Structure formats: C-alpha cells, structure tokens
Amino acid sequence: MNKQILFASALAVLGLTSCEKGLDDGTVNAGSEQVTNSLLQVRTRSGGSGSEATISYPLQVYVFQGDDCLAAQTIGDEGQTLNIPLVEGTYSVYAVGGASATDYVLPSTDDATTSTAIALKDGHSLTDLMAASATATLVDGGTNTVTLGLQRKTMLIQNIEIKKVPTAATAVSVTIAPLWQALTVGGGFSTAGTSRTIALTKQEDNRTWKLPSPIGEGLGVRLLPPSTQPASISVNITIGGATKTYTYSTSYQLEAGYKINIDGTYTEAVGVSLTGTITGAEWLGERTISFEFDENGSSASGESNGSEGNNDNSDNSDNFPAAGDTYEGCYVLASTVAGDGESAELTLLSPNEKKTAGNAVTIDDLNSAAATLGTDGISGWRPMTLAEAQLLQAAHTALGIADDRYYLFDNDGTVKQMRMSNGTMSTPSSSAAYIRPVANVTINNE
Predict the structure, then answer these.
(1) What are 42-93's pLDDT values in tens digits?
(2) How far apart are CA 280 and CA 127, in angstroms?
C-alpha cells in the first residue's frame, strides 16, 4: 500500500496547550483527577518530494487508553504542532488524514471508539482519506516520540471513457460494488456492501461518454475499496427508456492506493468490451486488467448476472478460443488447433504488467519479472518473443494500450523493446518500458 509519513517530534516546549475536555485543567479525561506529568507532542512534515510525501490535511488525532478516548485534536496543516499532556502510561494513538468537519461527522472524545465511523455528510464527496496508528508509552516527566506511517484508504477512479455507444443512448453510467461506506477512527472500514454509480457525460461526437469534468492528477472520483472480493464493474446503457447492464466480476483485487482508468468500447455484436488500468504508486508498478462485457454477461437494470470474462468464440467450429478471445482471464494472442480438431495450443497474454527502466533490465531480470506477473492456475509464464511482441503490437489498440508504450521481450537472449504505435524494435533506453509475460497452454476438446 501507499504509505505516507506522519512525523511526531519530541521537542520540549515551555507552554503546553490543552486539547480537549478534561485536559484543559491538567487532568486526564478518564474519570480520575490525576495530574498530568508527561507530554505527547505531535507535529507533521512532508519530507521527500512529489506525491509520495504528501499528507492529507486536516489530520484528526485520537488518543485512547484502553477503550477510553482521552483526546481528540486536529492538525490543520504541516506547520502545526499538537501538545497533549497526559499521565504516565501506555496509549494508543490513531490518526485519520483528509477528514474535515466540513465534509464528515467527526466523533468527539465522549463518543469516539476505534470502531466509530467517520461518516461522510450528505451531498459531500469522499476525500483522500489516510490512516495510521501506533502505541505510545509515557514515563513520569517524559516527552514521547512516535512515528506513524499513513496508508491511503481510498482508490481513485481517475478516468472513465466508453466509446462507440449507440447515438440513441440517453444515459451511460458505471457502477462499482460492493464497497465499504465509511472509514473508522481506528483505520478500519464500516458498513459493507454499498455501491457507487458514476454518471457519464455524452461528448460532441455523440458516441463517446466520459466523466463530466477534466481529469488530472488528484482529480476524479474517490471510493473506499470493495468490502468483498471479487468486486464487480458494471456499464449501464439506457436506450429508449430501457437500461441494459453489462457486468464483469474482477479476477484481481481493486485496492486502496491505486488509480483506476476504465476504457470501454461498445460493439452491437458482443456488447461492451472494457479495458481497465489500475495504476499504483511508482514503487508498486502498474497492473492492467482486461474486461469483456458481452450479451452473455448482461442483464436488465437491477439484476447482476455477470460474466467471468471467459469467452468461447461461437464462430470457431472447433469450440476453441480464437485469437482475440479471453481464456481464464487472459487475452489469447494466438490459437493453433490440432489437425484432428481435438486440442488447441493457446498463447496467453497475462493481464498483469510492470513498468520499469528498460535500460536497467537484464535477461535474467526479464525472466524473473515475467515469472511473477502471471495468473493463478496457469504455469510457465515467460517473456514474450519477437513474434509474440508483434502480435501484441497488432492487438494493442483492442487491448487499450497507448501508442507511446514500449514493451520488453526476449530476442534470442537479448532484451529488446517494441513501440506499440509502429512495431519498431530497438535497444531499451532509459525511458520507461513494460514487462508483460505470456504462457502457452494446451486445451482439449471435451
């Protein structure tokens, strides 16, 4: 997960600011009148550079002893410091970033527990929520130092684009379910099984539907992660007052801390074919998930009969997947049927990939990375050959892969890269390239 750093500093201070009810007179809000003799001092700083070092403000800090909440304070920005006087003892410290009193119902010391939901107010949008926790032990007369690692608790739907929708469509939306509804004080989640439907806006060409506002870094629709896996992604298209829903049950987990792009193309013959890209922070690499929505996986509005993404090609007289189909959640790059029609050898493209600096990758690195990017249930994952890289290049548009991407492959023991726009082969440069493995499987006619 993406971890953002919250720094707590033990700098001595001369004047201590009281923080919450029961603390302003030098006592702990725990039913006893013990005089505070120790200090928990918390301040934040970003450290590092770029988005990796950001912290979502305001930051709500809760201090518990056992089940009792003794303090609840807010750090409004990076320059503020909290000074919390307490008696000696052991405390649990929880921090929730990005939750303001404007957008959320924040619990006070009187009603806060670690499972209390930080509920979003009606009409407000989810913010970039983060959470952290630690245990702090205070000694008599001491000042405590704690270091908390913030984890992002939301995922970001960064962009949605559905293309070639019939011009008669009057509404298009995407629904993701089941989701958690709220974050808790303790950093967990509350209220499972909710869903979020995101309405799209028709573009000038009358065939493309997108999110209604320009999408950039940090913009989009934030959601809490699914409450169960696998999650489902549905495309809802309304024509003539009737809504049809095309639903895909994801083979890979949708997780907090990832950016998600959904790119779909509607075809009247098979419904909607979607390609979703889940992009994590740089240290997590990039994962691509391919979806297929066809008539077998559609239902009337309100139903949820989803396809698992394994399509048999009805035009294939041998009843084997053909190139361009999917098998076990993987794209079929090539399909060769045996002469007796009883078996077929498939070249499968993994739905997973990794972004890396191409000039630093050796052939051993390429083999090792490919072996880790496969899918469960299929063995023998390996780097692409030149011929397979050419197949990928020919299919990259259908897969939703950008023209400017380079993919690494094994060219007779040497690492080479291929540009998707024109199939040019070259020696990897320092620019980013991608590793995406393939595997060969043989299936028999049942």
Answers:
(1) 555 443 344 444 778 898 999 999 999 988 988 887 767 677 888 888 888 8
(2) 18
Q: What is the pTM of this model?
A: 0.56
**Interatomic CA distance for residues 243 and 169, integer angstroms:** 9
CATH number 2.60.40 given to 154-309: yes
| d(C-alpha 350, C-alpha 328), whole Å | 10
Q: Which residues contact 412 (CB under 8 A, 6 or more apart)?
A: none
> Is the separation of the CB atoms in 346 and 322 below 8 Å?
no
Domain range annotation of the chain: 3-152, 154-309
Q: In the chain, helix, strand, coil percent, each to 5?
A: 5, 45, 50
Among 2.30.30, 1.10.3470, 2.60.40, 3.10.620, name the CATH number for the domain at 3-152: 2.60.40
Question: Which residues make Cβ contacts (< 8 Å) with residue 181, sequence separation at least 6?
Answer: 117, 189, 190, 191, 192, 194, 224
Q: Does the pLDDT at position 31 exceed 80?
A: no
